[in-house]
Amino acid sequence: VISNHSDNALGSIALIDADAVHRALSMADCIELMDQTMRTVSQDGATLPLRTVMTIPGTQNRLGIMPGHLAEPAGLGVKIVGLYPKNPAQGRSSHLGVVILFDVDTSVPLALLDAGAITALRTAAASAVATRALARTDAGDLAILGAGEQAAYHLRAMALVRPLRRVRIWNRSRTHAERLRAQLGNSLPCPIEIADDVESAVAGADLICATTAATSPVLKGDWIAPGTHINLVGASVQTAAEITPNAVARSRYFVDYRPSALAQAGELHNAIQAGLIGPDHIRAEIGEVLLGLSAGRTASEEITIYKSLGIAAQDIAAAKWIYDRRLHDRQRHDPDNPKGE
Ligand code: NDP
Description:
The structure is a single chain. This protein is an alpha/beta fold. It has helices at residues 18-24, 27-41, 115-134, 149-161, 174-184, 198-202, 245-249, 258-264, 266-273, 286-290, 312-333; strands spanning 14-16, 46-47, 52-55, 62-70, 75-83, 95-102, 109-114, 141-145, 166-170, 192-194, 207-210, 229-232, 252-255, 282-285, 304-307. The strands form 2 sheets. The chain has an 8-stranded parallel β-sheet with strand order 10-9-8-11-12-15-13-14. Helix 5 (174-184) links the parallel strand 9 and strand 10 (192-194). Helix 3 (115-134) packs parallel to helix 4 and helix 3 crosses helix 11. The longest helix has 22 residues, at 312-333. The radius of gyration is 20 Å and the shape is globular. The model has no long low-confidence stretch (mean pLDDT 94). NADPH dihydro-nicotinamide-adenine-dinucleotide phosphate is lined by residues 83, 85, 88, 94-95, 119, 123, 146-151, 171-173, 176, 211-214, 218, 233-234, 236, 308-310.
């Protein structure tokens, strides 16, 4: 190698696996971190090119690439994650990949972190932030649609922001819902019921988390009770939607990030195409609500929707937190090693 430069960019890169991610960042801390992050995003504090998704030829598998820069907490990075829907049947996450964290000033790669763990945590934490801001304070009758990784994390996150009094899970495969219930044991404040269909899962619920990989709607607008808050997490491309257009039209609709919602939110696209709403149906980004720049819920009978597409700012904020925490812990244990190497 012929170079004037002495640095080996990968020499001190940290490898942070899923266990280390979870040790460093609890759900409760991640909720506060996402609260701060979404405020930064809505104050023009983030640069977030639209996510690129490419399909692996001849399969349903995709690769997603999400770069971004965040001002506070300061971070530069990119998430590269496979979206492999058949992985769970083989005991793997459907979202495997890495978050690469760079030093903002030099672009030296600082860390490679487990993207599956970060995605699971930050997505549910961001929904919790939205729920705290938009759901009625007495909301506690929770319906979860889906029983995969996001369903599991959303159950934990919702329990941290609202006093749950009833929990129902509906899933395409009932056995997977039963498996999730068994995994959760007695960790929730109330027993988990398994619903036979979506309509009975959401009947009377005031909090719904849609976390399925469905491409066509599973949740109909007519089934949603007045006053409900819905976190729409599953459909992440414009050709997929978990709820019908009239559900969108009936709601006060909030998003994580306007540019990606306008480009990639399938149920918004469908409702616009059906002539029920215009793009101005997006009331605000959740960060604008948190900052007090826009009203959230204005009446107890309103249906509010938080559309989560997921943004790199969330991954980078989590990665930076975990990296800094690890550095801090190492320095504490070894004061002679200030770089934590
Ligand atoms: P998993 O693979 O762990 O779980 C997928 C879930 O969706 C399972 O419950 C599965 O049911 C269900 N499902 C699959 N296909 C259908 C269908 N056609 N109709 C109804 N249910 C279906 O995935 P995750 O939990 O990690 O992710 C769930 C969804 O959330 C995905 O669409 C994913 O892309 C999206 N996501 C969004 C993020 C965001 O930031 N907004 C971040 C991460 C994920 P079964 O048990 O029967 O297979």
